[in-house]
Design a protein that fits this description.
Layout: E1 6-11, H1 18-30, E2 36-40, E3 53-57, H2 61-66, H3 68-77, E4 80-84, H4 94-100, E5 105-108, H5 111-119, E6 126-128, H6 135-139, H7 149-158, E7 161-166, H8 171-174, H9 176-189, E8 193-198, E9 202-206, E10 223-226, H10 232-240, E11 244-247, H11 256-263, E12 267-271, E13 285-286, E14 288-293, E15 304-308, H12 310-322, H13 324-342, H14 345-361
Parallel strand pairs: 1-2, 1-3, 3-4, 4-5, 5-6, 7-8, 7-11, 11-12, 12-13
Antiparallel strand pairs: 8-9, 9-10, 14-15
């Protein structure tokens, strides 16, 4: 690729949020063949870009709502403003679609998200650029527990198999209630499993039977380690301790942690019909039904999602737990054929670069 024009990449540079993590991966690879300048979202009002440039807003909806007047002046000066955002449900609002149509193009991470935008009335080009993994996540040898040595010791002493789930925020969208029901039913079937929860505050373990479903999840924890934000090395270590990822989300534009799990050899089980269908093996998807509104009261994401059938999921998990070596071999095959080919950051960002260069080269 040749360097044509400049790209101003506006994102939350100083916040530990998923937008920040994904944007940093984009910037890491794009800077190799593109003039690209990172800009913090709060500095957007001071941006005065060159005419022969494009601006990326990642996320898109927050800055365009907050800095509407500035958006108009920036859009008038540059070749285009490209938004990067998600669709947490199968529809965005009419208001959100009207905002998206003010962009030159929109980039979303999954075909599910693209359908949500297009079906909701977005008329500008909508590109699918998935999230990914560094090749190290596929190729690095199994880690030795350091940060999670206590967790590894707990697992070994009790002869447990670990099922992990990230529940960082948006409990209903992430399906925390589904996760607890699923584990309750599974724990009634067998006593060799424990549930590992990563929240915004801690890593915790539930390894006993669950009684009252209304009990707050923190009261169910056998072990709790206060940890807010994990480095990539710590995430890898945590995934390497676990056998299965329970993807109980009702919605989401991609759901990145399960992809990381697959890359580390974890078996992932999720509901059929979500954004994760793009990267999941078919055998990891269980029957689902349509959910209610994923984010009630949200003025951007107004649609529904999917809910896994608990009984089908329990049956699948029991089969996995009884045949771990077989399923691990299936994950390895899927990772080499699909994840390595389509969901590694260097290839993804090369395709992203082609999209950006296309808009830089367009004559207006």
């Amino acid at each position: 690729m040749i360097r044509v024009g400049s790209v101003y990449y506006v994102y939350p540079m100083f916040k530990r949020v998923s937008w920040n993590a994904i944007a940093k991966k984009h910037l890491k690879y794009l800077k190799s063949y593109m003039n690209i300048f990172p800009i913090d979202e709060n500095a957007f009002p001071a941006l005065y870009p060159f005419n022969n440039s494009i601006v990326i807003l990642h996320p898109f909806f927050y800055p365009i709502e907050k800095f509407e007047a500035k958006f108009k002046s920036v859009a008038a000066r540059v070749k285009g403003v490209i938004g990067i955002d998600v669709a947490d449900s199968d529809a965005i609002s009419e208001y959100a679609a009207s905002l998206a149509n003010r962009a030159t193009a929109i980039i979303v991470p999954s075909n599910f998200a693209k359908r949500s935008y297009v079906n909701s009335g977005v008329r500008v080009p909508v590109y699918v650029v998935p999230h990914g993994v560094d090749r190290e996540w596929i190729d690095a040898p199994k880690t030795q527990p350091k940060t999670f040595a206590k967790l590894a010791d707990h697992k070994e002493k009790r002869c447990l198999k670990f099922i992990i789930s990230y529940q960082m925020h948006s409990e209903y969208r992430k399906g925390l209630d589904i996760l607890i029901k699923l584990f309750k039913e599974l724990r009634n079937e067998r006593n060799d499993v424990a549930l590992v929860l990563k929240t915004s505050q801690y890593v915790g373990v539930i390894d006993g039977k669950i009684g009252d479903e209304n009990t707050h999840v923190e009261k169910l924890l056998t072990l709790r380690m206060p940890i807010r934000w994990l480095t990539e090395g710590e995430q890898m270590e945590l995934f390497d301790l676990c056998e299965i990822y329970a993807l109980t989300s009702r919605g989401g534009g991609f759901e990145h942690p399960p992809l990381l799990g697959l890359a580390r050899g974890e078996i992932v089980i999720g509901a059929r019909g979500g954004a994760w269908d793009d990267y999941m093996p078919d055998w990891g998807l269980v029957d689902s039904k349509r959910s209610g509104q994923v984010l009630p009261g949200n003025h951007i994401h107004v649609g529904r999602g999917v809910e896994m059938e608990i009984d089908r999921a329990v049956d699948r998990l029991c089969d996995v737990l009884d045949n771990l070596d077989d399923y691990r071999a299936r994950v390895k095959e899927h990772t080499n054929k699909v994840i390595r080919e389509k969901f590694v950051w260097d290839r993804i960002c090369f395709e992203l670069g082609k999209i950006l260069l296309k808009h830089l080269r367009e004559v207006h």
